[in-house]
Amino acid sequence: MAQYCRRRASFLSGSPVIKHRFLSLAYLLTLIGGAWQLARHSGVPAFLLPAPQAVGAALWQQRALLAHHAIYTLGEIVLALLLGGGAGVALAILMSASPLLRRLLFPLVTASQTIPVFALAPLLVLWLGFGVASKVTVAALIIFFPLCLSLFDGLCRTPPGWLELAHTLSRSRLRHFLHVRWPAALPHFFSGLQMAAILAPVGVVIGEWVGASEGLGYLMMHASARLETPLSFAALALLMLLALSLSGGVALLRRRFLYSA
Fold first, then answer.
1. Listed residue (42, 38, 63) closest to 219, CA to CA
2. What does the pLDDT look like over 192-203, one tens digit per residue?
3. In the chain, pLDDT over 90 holds for what percent of residues?
4. d(CA 156, CA 244)
5. Per the database entry, which stretches of residues form a coiled coil (predicted)?
6. Do 200 and 80 form a contact (C-beta atoms < 8 A)?
7. Which of 140, 147, 138, 144 is nearest to 119 (CA)?
8. Is residue 8 part of a domain?
9. What is residue 87's predicted lDDT score, i.e. its pLDDT?
10. Number of domains making up the chain
11. What does pTM read for this prediction?
C-alpha cells in the first residue's frame, strides 16, 4: 500500500510538466493562428488558404463526416502500431539475443530503409487492394525501423554491472531479460514508440492518398479536388490532433513506467 501511494504521488507530481506542455502547445497554436491571419490579409486567395473561421465552420458543419473518416484512420493507425511495433520489438529482441541473427538480419533491416515508402505505396495498394491492409502495411513499414533500432540499441547497452550481478543471482537467460535487460531498455523503447506514434499517421495518410475510399487522407484529397479547402484543412487539423494525442499518450505511459517507481 505504501509503495502504491508513493507511485501515485510520483505520477501526480508530473502534472506541472503536463500543464507546461499544454501551455507550450497553446502558445504554438497562437503563433500559427497569428501567422495564418497575416497570410490571409496579405491577399492569399481563400481557395488556397481559407480563414481560420472557415475551417472552424467546416469542422462543426461537417463533424459527422469528419468523425466517420477520423475513426477509420484511427483504426488503421492502431493496427499499424500493433503490427509494425510488434514486429519491431520481436526482431530487436531476437537480434539482441543471438549474435548470429544479428549478423544475418541487421544488414537486411538497414537495407530495407533505403527503399522510399512513397515508391512502395502504389505497389502495396496494387497487391493488397484499396482496403485497410495496404494502408496498415505502409504505416507499419514506416514505424518498424525506428522502434526496432531504438529498442535494439537499448538492449545492447545494458550496464555490464547489472548483467554481472544478475548472473551471480541466476543463470536463467529469461530472468536476465525480464528483470535486467528489458527494464534497462525501457527508455529506448519509449523513445522509439513515441517516434512511431508520430510517424504512423503519416504512413496511413500516404496509403490513403495513393488509393482509398475512406479515411482523413482520402477526404483531404477529395475535398482539395473539389476546391473545398476549408474541409481539407479541417481533416488536416483532425489528423494533427490524432498524432498529438497518440504522442501525448505515449509520453504519459513513459512517465508512468519510468518515473513512478
1. 63
2. 999 999 999 999
3. 41
4. 30
5. none
6. yes
7. 138
8. no
9. 94
10. 1
11. 0.83
